Amino acid sequence: MLLERGHRIKKPHKPNCFCKELCTSRKRGESLSNARSRLHAYAALSNPVYLCQLSYDPVFSTFMLCTELEDCSKVEKEFKNEYSEMAEKLRLFSVEMIEQCRTTEEVEMILKHTTGDLYSHFLFPQLILAIDCEIKEFVTHPNCQQVLRSVWLGEWHYWKKKSFFSQLMWVIPHIIQLPFMVLLYMFMPWTKMAERMKSPINKFLSATASYVIFLILIIIQTSHSMVTRGPPSTGWEWPIMIWVLGYICVEINKFWFQGYQRYFSTLWNWYDICMLSTFVATFSVWLWAYLDLIESDQKYLERRYWKSYDPALIGEGLFAIASILAYWRLLYIFQINSYLGPLQIRLNLVFYKD
């Protein structure tokens, strides 16, 4: 009845708000009555009945309000338990809403719903928002996971029946077929085989196969020892440069798609930047070594007479560092495994536990 008459609960200002309208006096300290008034207001706003009656998108409102409550619990330590309890109830409420879905279409309708332009370029905006708000109970719910798995596999329903070893061996044919698949996708995208390549699992396998080829090139390059001054001249440097240039383009595209805030909030993106920067630095030093060789004309000088800061030695060291970083990046790919992925998460919690 009150809602029909236009009565609404006014949203309180956050504890760390110092706006000129109402919160200027907080610089001198906040009274207990104001703090409790905010607590009671949030308790009313987080009521599931109120959210369902007032909000056009209860799931979105639940996620945003849950984030605000977590922020309040970090600022107002005195009422941390109360705010955390309200946030936990909202998480359970979001899980209860997704539990009401009985079909895949209903789950997709919730996950694909957008509010404004926020995350509208993603396939499942609500799921991305839940990840950003750290609503783990919603993300890990079986209904969400089932929809994600069906989208991930596409037409490859037989993939989940394979063992880990069989899945690993599936990458080998992909390595052989990769050049033909790329040409097919570029020049004949309307074919049925090219359509199958658009599935996320196939894109992942193709990316993995490409990265395995990249590592093989690095192994071949590192197996040749330098006996002359100047840049390495095995002939494998050019394919490595092409691969690195391709990965740089991938990172630029990822940055453009995700935005700077989301892109730089992922540690693996920072890792890729460091790895690719090391490769670019290596190529630059190789160019320096080539120019230095032309100037000095001491190609066959014995290694023991080389200067400690010789560009050939610097390039060799940088390439070794870049190679190690490239090998360690396999951990990022192994996250897809149901055993190695959770193991990495547990290790992260050990080293970065709050």
TrEMBL record:
Residues 19-80 form the Transient receptor ion channel domain. One of its GO terms (biological process) is regulation of cytosolic calcium ion concentration. Keywords: ANK repeat, Ion channel, Ion transport, Membrane, Repeat, Transmembrane, Transmembrane helix, Transport. It is found in: Membrane. Its main location: membrane. It is a multi-pass membrane protein. InterPro entries: Ion_trans_dom, TRP_dom, TRPC_channel. The chain crosses the membrane at residues 168-188, 200-220, 240-257, 269-291, 311-330. GO terms for molecular function: inositol 1,4,5 trisphosphate binding; store-operated calcium channel activity. One of its GO terms (cellular component) is plasma membrane. This is Eka-Trp5 protein.
